[in-house]
Design brief:
It is built from five helices and four strands. By secondary structure, it is an alpha+beta fold.
């Protein structure tokens, strides 16, 4: 079977957040891009966390209740992030996705810097493309 690598199917231009970004700004980014999660990076592009749409929704409900800014991305982000490398297998990632909760995985280089993200839809697309190409 042909090796399906993460780098061939990942999103090279994901939304990203910074730790000091307000939850309101993060919410706006989710709305504009229709992505469901994104990496939090430092000034050097290194991955420091992950923010999901559901994390933001919970805080936005509090924000509307109190009608004031109550959180930054640093307060909401997950710091224990499951990541992939660009040379990892899409098939192995698919199996991992069945066992773990994340729907979006940051893809990082060996230096720890963010290269992109890969989500369940990307994995399904890779498998579908592979199956269609081999059924001809």
């Amino acid at each position: 079977m042909t090796s399906l690598k993460v780098e061939e199917y990942m999103n090279h231009y994901p939304i990203t957040f910074t730790a000091d970004m307000g939850v309101e700004e993060a919410s706006l980014l989710f709305l504009k891009t229709k992505q469901i999660g994104g990496p939090v990076i430092d000034d050097n592009g290194a991955l420091i966390g992950f923010l999901s749409e559901s994390d933001v929704l919970a805080k936005m409900l509090e924000t509307i209740y109190y009608n004031e800014h109550i959180a930054d991305v640093a307060d909401l982000m997950r710091k224990d992030v499951l990541t992939m490398k660009p040379y990892d297998s899409v098939i192995e990632l698919g199996q991992l996705m069945l066992k773990n909760k994340p729907k979006v995985y940051p893809v990082i280089g060996d230096d720890g810097n963010l290269l992109g993200t890969i989500c369940r839809n990307d994995v399904l697309s890779a498998i579908d493309q592979h199956l269609r190409a081999n059924s001809k």
